[in-house]
């Protein structure tokens, strides 16, 4: 019998195909009809007609995966772009189904602000999404349900991180230490690679991650540390698998998480490796803890655990298990988003050399070429700050935010939102909203400047979210982003390798939006 032959260039493994075929078989066998569910839900927002069982995944995601995997040209649009386009058909508040789960997408600044700022008690919860719940157990800071436990844990983490320098000038030396290494290595690698250029991503990611590591783990990792580099790669891959692979079907068929092949097995391996890495760190802290000299957040958390146990608080949520998930949240959130933002800024600078020139001219006039830039320079570098903000607007770090959930049935903008509905604040649409941004698809830093060239603060600029779930590390991210960008642009001129095609600005969507890999040629300035 002839063996099964795949199309040339296909990168879909046989086990992935088996998994998708199994999912298709389950669709055929299942009697549940989500069409009936939409009819039974009164007054929910309008939206596209769902397929039985898979809901609206059937219209876009699964066909797109097949097109891409079997060598056909994929649609050059990410999920947030497709969701934004649907608003033109169904309105800024519309509904979809993922399996039988109702999901309401909020588009545009007014709808997002109305939900998250004006109705925070209703729309600040987190949904029980199978793929996320399996891996996080609904603990930590990012994915934990809204309530007393989450508030206590978040308050403790925020207070502790501030005591170690979060949002303060005292953290700058830690950031600058990593940037010194980045600049040295960039120059070395650039000379070594010559005209082909160098990929800045590993160095940037390492430097950014080391800042949060110093706060929560009390240590830094060398950029050539294989285990640490592997952890950063695994985090990136894990986020991509969860959103942009057949693994999304776990949210419809949770048992697929345990499927022993393909991306399902890879996802479990990613989770296992990250778990082992973080638990070793907790164990080391426990064995070397000195209550009189706490080194970082982990030490402070272990001390709080002991204090609550000594006070007889048997039902305390402060446990090593909860600490593990907090570290994972902070580790990922403190690395991926900021590193991607820096990489996006560098990419826009090489694609817009005139803007790079203006930023460097402003820096030369204010900071000079020898003094290290400081966050205190922000007010004196309006065009530089406007450029960073415009890149953030164009490439929102978490374009669909982290999903929210309605904690009770409520009326919102004339529609009934049932309890348990997943709420998706489309931050991408907020920053591309033509009702608040002039020519929103055009890169134009001047939109953040007034007639006198001073910085404009716009209410509709919310790259870190809005409401009760606003990013806890917003100030840290802003400081890191500003110092990293100014330090690199003060030291170097960035350009594309000669003859290289312009990199795509579509990016790679995996919960966060990362630029596609690119290389730059780096030359010293002055």
TrEMBL record:
Highest taxon, organism lineage: Eukaryota
InterPro entries: Cyt_P450, Cyt_P450_CS, Cyt_P450_E_grp-I, Cyt_P450_E_grp-I_CYP2D-like, Cyt_P450_sf, Cytochrome_P450_fam2
Keyword Secreted: no
UniProt keyword terms in alphabetical order: Endoplasmic reticulum, Heme, Iron, Lipid metabolism, Membrane, Metal-binding, Microsome, Mitochondrion, Mitochondrion inner membrane, Monooxygenase, Oxidoreductase, Transmembrane, Transmembrane helix
Coiled-coil residue spans: none
Annotated catalysed reactions: N-[(5Z,8Z,11Z,14Z)-eicosatetraenoyl]-serotonin + reduced [NADPH--hemoprotein reductase] + O2 = 2-oxo-N-[(5Z,8Z,11Z,14Z)-eicosatetraenoyl]-serotonin + oxidized [NADPH--hemoprotein reductase] + H2O + H(+); (5Z,8Z,11Z,14Z)-eicosatetraenoate + reduced [NADPH--hemoprotein reductase] + O2 = 19-hydroxy-(5Z,8Z,11Z,14Z)-eicosatetraenoate + oxidized [NADPH--hemoprotein reductase] + H2O + H(+); an omega-methyl-long-chain fatty acid + reduced [NADPH--hemoprotein reductase] + O2 = an omega-hydroxy-long-chain fatty acid + oxidized [NADPH--hemoprotein reductase] + H2O + H(+); (5Z,8Z,11Z,14Z)-eicosatetraenoate + reduced [NADPH--hemoprotein reductase] + O2 = 20-hydroxy-(5Z,8Z,11Z,14Z)-eicosatetraenoate + oxidized [NADPH--hemoprotein reductase] + H2O + H(+)
SUPFAM superfamilies: Cytochrome P450 (SSF48264)
Class of this enzyme: oxidoreductase
Binding sites annotated in the UniProt record for heme: 471
Topology versus the membrane: Multi-pass membrane protein
Keyword Endoplasmic reticulum attached: yes
A Gene Ontology BP annotation from the UniProt entry: organic acid metabolic process
EC number(s) per entry: 1.14.14.80
A Gene Ontology molecular function term of the record: steroid hydroxylase activity
Gene Ontology CC annotations of this record: endoplasmic reticulum membrane; mitochondrial inner membrane
Pfam families referenced in this protein's UniProt entry, alphabetically: p450
Subcellular location: Endoplasmic reticulum membrane; Microsome membrane; Mitochondrion inner membrane
Residues spanning the membrane: 12-32, 238-259
Homology family: Belongs to the cytochrome P450 family.
Function noted in UniProt: A cytochrome P450 monooxygenase involved in the metabolism of arachidonic acid and its conjugates. Mechanistically, uses molecular oxygen inserting one oxygen atom into a substrate, and reducing the second into a water molecule, with two electrons provided by NADPH via cytochrome P450 reductase (CPR; NADPH-ferrihemoprotein reductase). Acts as an omega and omega-1 hydroxylase for arachidonic acid and possibly for other long chain fatty acids. May modulate the arachidonic acid signaling pathway and play a role in other fatty acid signaling processes.
Name recorded for this polypeptide: Cytochrome P450 2U1
Organism: Gasterosteus aculeatus aculeatus
């Amino acid at each position: 019998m002839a063996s099964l032959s795949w199309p040339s260039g296909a990168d879909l493994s046989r086990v992935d195909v088996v998994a998708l075929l199994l999912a298709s078989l389950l669709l055929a066998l299942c009697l549940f009809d989500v069409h009936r569910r939409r009819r039974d839900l009164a007054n929910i927002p309008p939206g596209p007609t769902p397929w039985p069982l898979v809901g609206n995944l059937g219209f876009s995601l699964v066909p797109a995966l097949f097109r891409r995997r079997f060598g056909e040209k994929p649609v050059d649009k990410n999920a947030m772009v497709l969701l934004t386009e649907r608003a033109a058909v169904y309105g800024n508040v519309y509904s979809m189904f993922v399996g039988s789960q109702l999901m309401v997408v909020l588009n545009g600044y007014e709808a997002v602000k109305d939900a998250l700022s004006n109705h925070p008690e209703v729309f600040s919860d987190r949904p029980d999404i199978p793929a996320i719940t399996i891996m996080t157990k609904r603990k930590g800071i990012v994915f934990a349900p809204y309530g007393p436990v989450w508030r206590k844990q978040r308050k403790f983490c925020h207070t502790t991180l501030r005591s170690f320098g979060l949002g303060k000038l005292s953290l700058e030396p830690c950031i600058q230490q990593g940037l010194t290494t980045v600049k040295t290595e960039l120059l070395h690698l650039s000379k070594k690679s010559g005209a082909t250029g160098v990929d800045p991503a590993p160095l940037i990611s390492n430097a950014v991650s080391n800042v949060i590591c110093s706060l929560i783990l009390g240590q830094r990792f060398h950029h050539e540390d294989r285990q640490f580099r592997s952890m950063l790669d695994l985090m990136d891959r894990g986020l991509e698998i969860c959103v942009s692979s057949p693994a999304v079907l776990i949210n419809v068929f949770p048992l697929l998480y345990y499927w022993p092949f393909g991306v399902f097995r890879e996802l479990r391996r990613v989770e296992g490796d990250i778990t082992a890495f973080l638990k070793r760190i907790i164990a080391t802290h426990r064995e070397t803890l000195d209550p009189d000299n706490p080194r970082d957040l982990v030490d402070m958390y272990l001390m709080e655990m002991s204090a609550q146990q000594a006070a007889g608080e048997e039902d305390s949520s402060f446990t090593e298990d909860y600490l593990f998930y907090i570290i994972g949240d902070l580790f990922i959130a403190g690395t991926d988003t900021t590193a991607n933002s820096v990489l996006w800024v560098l990419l826009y600078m090489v694609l817009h050399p005139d803007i790079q020139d203006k930023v460097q001219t402003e820096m030369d006039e204010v900071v000079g070429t020898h003094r290290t830039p400081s966050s205190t320079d922000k007010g004196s570098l309006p065009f530089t700050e406007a450029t960073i903000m415009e890149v953030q607007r164009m490439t929102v770090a978490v374009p669909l935010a982290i999903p929210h959930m309605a904690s009770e049935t409520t009326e919102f903008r004339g529609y009934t939102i049932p309890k348990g509905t997943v709420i998706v604040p489309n931050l991408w649409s907020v920053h591309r909203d033509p009702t608040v941004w002039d020519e929103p698809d055009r890169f134009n830093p001047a939109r953040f400047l007034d007639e006198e060239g001073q910085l404009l603060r716009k209410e509709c600029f919310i790259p870190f979210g809005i409401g009760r779930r606003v990013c806890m590390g917003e100030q840290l991210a802003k400081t890191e982003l500003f110092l990293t960008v100014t330090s690199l642009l003060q030291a170097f001129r960035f350009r594309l390798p000669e003859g290289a095609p312009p990199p795509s600005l579509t990016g790679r969507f995996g919960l966060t939006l990362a630029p596609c890999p690119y290389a730059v040629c780096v030359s010293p300035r002055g």
